[in-house]
Model the fold of this input.
Amino acid sequence: MIKSSITISLVNEARGGPFVFWDDIRAACKEAKELGFTGIEIFAPGPEVLAKSEAAKIVADHGLQISALGTGGGWVLHKWTLTSPEEKVRVNARNFIASMIEAGAPFGAPAIIGSLQGRHSETVDPLLAHSYLEEALDFLSAKAKNAGTFLLFEPLNRYESNLVRTIDEGMALVNKIGQKDHLKLLCDLFHMNIEEADIAASLIKCGTMVGHVHLADSNRKPAGLGHTDFGPISLALKQIGYRGYVSAEALPLPDSSMAARHTIDCFNRHFKG
Ligand code: LER
Ligand code: MN
Done:
């Protein structure tokens, strides 16, 4: 069975980003539970948030699971990336992700590498950027293995990164690292709408490498408010036996509550069962 999830950002500086709920994890959990969601994906400023804000306890008290932990706070707050020209910055990014892997592991929540992957640039050519990325993924997938969990790597569309943009490129990277049980791909339907010729076919090709799905419509609005055809996409996920989360990473439009409702309507219509 595919599981439903919805995002919350606890990083004020990420305002404007594609997160459905903001700031108040207790209110978000209450609403998510009432609508029938299974999980909540947390975009946190750091690993301490799980303990300090009692986020994990609040999620559990509402009968929800933490579906995943976003690490993009490391970029938003500190400008860390795994492919920075500065070694200190790369190490900070790597250590931040390692700490999120360890924070999420007891709750079965994998850490996500999205914007922290960075990009190649004038000072870091594509070959060097890929070698930095692979070095970090070797280290971090081993960390995930030791913690009894897995790590999620997210291909990003061409306007957000120039490193790994397609599912094919993501699969090549996972194959190169060779830790398939501990490194999986996060397939974001918004990025895929830009980069893939056929979203459903790409998901089928990705198969057991699909570790998490971000749900948004073609325009990053909640599912149902754009032109993505979710029928073939949900069929593809069912065909590959996907049992992970489909997690709404969408703009809170027209507001958070309505975005959550649009999402659960789409989930119930297409992905449930
Ligand atoms: C941003 O577009 C995105 O998809 C995030 O999941 C990356 O951190
Ligand atoms: Mn995403």
